[in-house]
Amino acid sequence: MIEIGKFNTLVILRETEPGLYLAEEEQSEDVILLPHKYKPEQFEIGDPIRVFVYLDNEERPIATTLEPYVLLNQFAYLHCADVNKFGAFMDWGLEKQLFVPFKEQARPMKVGNWYIIHLYLDDKTNRLVGSSKTNQFLQNEELTIKRFDEVDILVTHLTEKGANVIINGIHKGLIYIDDIFEDIRTGDILKAYIKKIRDDHKIDVVLQTPGYKSIEPNAQYILDEIRSAGGFLPLHDKSSPDEIKNELGISKKSFKKAIGSLFKDKQIVLKDDGIELL
Question: Which domain holds residue 33?
């Protein structure tokens, strides 16, 4: 069965004036059009071809060789290209823009802004639709991950607590501000690790390997910064959290933990006015 919203590997049945007609099998009656502008430069009847299937402006299934920014039941960070009386329309890499009805907007969308969008198939209309009300497509009741697992995350938004993330396209998680020491932004897709799963199934995530090795990236990072600065960094135990955050992008707690490790390993000297490389 040809699946809408996904990539399908189909067979080229015949070439006509509108384009190539494709199907799952050569004898299949369930065919779909690949317009001429998307056909490969060289092909033979009977060749397999990988295409993305969606609905055209007349709501008919159609194939394309273009790569969409999001697939069915996935999340992506998309740009709002238009808004009219029916809803918003997102640029998702295809000619026909992705429709986000007003009822599926977490807040009113504006042209030019970017939003985390979930692509789903509307049961009533059989149309591909976007939604920025992402929580309805996530669940933490039945977890598919465990502590220390490496996971894929999508950063959804930043708060004073830290970065809210989607884990493996299924679960909600949080990177606490004290565990962030690099510049991350909404829409970033990153590798991360499960630091802790709480009794209420809330998930703490970190960008570095958790456990006893978690200090190493901070310590190495600060060591590299000291070297880049010529062997001395004007930050110390009494520096304000804002000074440390502005200079290194990490919390004071993480900074103190890292320089303590470097001092113990005899790689730095702690002075009243800063840190010096040994």
Answer: 7-64
